[in-house]
Amino acid sequence: MAKPRIMFDHDGRHPLVYMYEPPMYKEEFEAAIDELVGTPVEAVNLMIGDIGSLIYDSQVGGLWGKNVDKWPHLVWGRASRNFNSLISEGYDPLKIACDRAHNKGMFLYAQLLAQQGARERSLRVWEDDEFSPDDFKYDVQSLEIGASGEVDKEWPGYRCLDFMNEEVRSRTLSLVEELVNNYSIDGLELEFCYTPYYFRPDQVKSGCKVMTEWIATLHEILSSGSGDRELAVQVPANLDASLSIGLDLNEWIKRGIVDAIIAQPSAVADPMADFRPLLNASRGTNTRVLAALKSRVSTDRINEASIEMMRGSACNYWDQGVDGIYVAHWFGYWPYTPSFYEKLRELPHPDIMAPRDKHYRVPTDTARPVSPSIVADKSNSLPVKLEISAPHSIELIISDDVERWDSMGMVHEILLRIRLVDTTERDKIEVKLNGNVLPQDTLRKVINMYAMDAPQYRVTGACWYIFRLRDEFRPVKGNNIIEVNLLENESQAFAKVTLRDVEMEIKYLKGAGFGRGTVDPDLGSYEYATQ
Questions:
Q1: C-alpha angle 496-502-505 in degrees, rounded to nearest 5
Q2: How far apart are CA 321 and CA 188, in angstroms?
Q3: How far apart, in whole angstroms, are the C-alpha atoms of residue 181 and residue 97?
Q4: Nearest-10 crossing angle of helices 307-320, 338-346
Q5: pLDDT higher for 503 or 125?
Q6: Can you spell out the DSSP letters for 442-476?
Q7: Nearest to 227, CA basis, from 92, 109, 143, 369
Q8: What is the pLDDT of residue 224?
Q9: Helices (H), 276-335
Q10: In this structure, how many other beta carbons lie within 10 angstroms of the beta carbon of residue 352?
């Protein structure tokens, strides 16, 4: 079968069964596919849940909330009614998706959560008025990691299924056999990042071997017989981070027991993500590496990434040599508008995106915490506290060949933005780009000492340093080193001055002599109709 380069992560719940009024119709469930027809998406990876809470009519695993009468959340009850209404009418949700995808020339991968913890058990706990949330910690079941008595009850993996237990592994094998035998799926995606705890902390090393043999068996089941189904795994992009939770990616690649690795760099959009170690490990093998491209930014200013940000991330990923893009968590855009499709349209084409506006940023604090099990290397992340006369360097990666496009008269301007917090306008800094001090006459300061309101959450005591980069200070394709040196600190605050944001915007023209869009700010409000 062809190997899809653009995969779409479809939750199956939030943009689908949560949204429609019961009873749900077959045509409404088909919208999961229909809404992506005509886009570059080649494969829809439909979330089917975990072994104990599935969204299709499984005879091996449990239908989500099948025996729950009283729901702690109304929308969960709505979802359950929608599943059951389809099934009672003779429609299996997963078969609907497979048939519709194939009818429209797309692949359908079943996305299975490898771990979700005791979710179904927690539903029944909430249903019992006599059962308190604290009691749930002690209600450990025999197949869960906490059953050994060797794990702290506060550890986040305490109620997760223990993959050292053969019964846990064999149940999923049986489920995969059911998918292969009864459904026309083109592949299985095992999602390992959702709840990344599979073994007791003291058994992770020995658990790696157990997990590798289990993956090998899964791959054999999927590749046996007709159909040539793929095994894709969604894992931390960092090899060491994956190994720390029991996933030996190097061994999986060497043995050829995974067809596609979906590399997840962070819980939010990360244009600086480094996939090169994983790509080096897979070079010369049959294992493809797809970069998970997220849209959620979740900073105080930005919730979802702009198209300029998506271009920056996608081009940086393609520039490293990834085999494809996994469009991760974009279902949060639902209901999809023209801006969604505009972002999606360009993704497979780095050559088209090359001379178009981009916005790069170094990852910084967000409203969405990142699991340490997902991101092991945070050496190039922000924020970082600054000391007097102790320069701090940060790496900014861009894929733009500025010199090439500038020779064609297409570069409009390049902005470098630095934000400090717990600072005042009296503090003095020096900023270098690739060893060159940026002159003061290219600088504009924007003081945000106090914010009355903000798009998401407030960051106060802040100052933006915005440099318009002249030709002699322009960035290079690849790695750029930005050095920030706090020269004087006259702040009376207890907190230290902190470098919180580093961003670069590269703005283009369609060609020499063109204006910027249909309204050029340099020409006032007159409609500039030459484009």
A1: 155
A2: 24
A3: 16
A4: 20
A5: 503
A6: GEEEEEES--S--SSS---SEEEEEEE--GGG---
A7: 109
A8: 87
A9: 276-282, 307-320
A10: 12
Nearest in space to 56 (alpha carbons), one of 104, 112, 3: 112
Domain with CATH 3.20.20.80 in the chain: 6-111+164-361
Among 456, 471, 384, residue whose Cα is nearest residue 419: 384
Q: How far is 53 from 60, CA to CA, in rounded Å? A: 11
pTM value surpassing 0.90: yes
Quick one: fold of 384-508?
A: Jelly Rolls (2.60.120)
Instruction: Please give the backbone phi and psi of residue 127, each rounded to the nearest 5 degrees, phi first.
Output: -70, -25
Task: Determine if the peptide bond prior to 4 is cis (ω within 30°).
Answer: no
CA-based nearest residue to 10, from 115, 121, 100:
100
**Per-residue pLDDT averaged across 175-195, rounded?**
96
Please check whether the domain covering 6-111+164-361 is classified as CATH 3.90.180.10.
no
Which pLDDT band holds residue 129 (cuts at 50, 70, 90)? Answer: low
Cite the residue boundaries of each domain of the chain with CATH code 2.60.120: 384-508
Tell me how far CA of residue 510 lies from CA of 199, 408, 517, in angstroms: 54, 10, 9
Phi, psi of 187 (to 5 degrees): 180, 170
pLDDT tens digits, 430-479: 999 999 999 999 999 999 888 888 888 888 889 999 999 999 999 999 99
Are the C-beta atoms of 254 and 280 separated by less than 8 Å?
no
H/E stretch holding 381: none
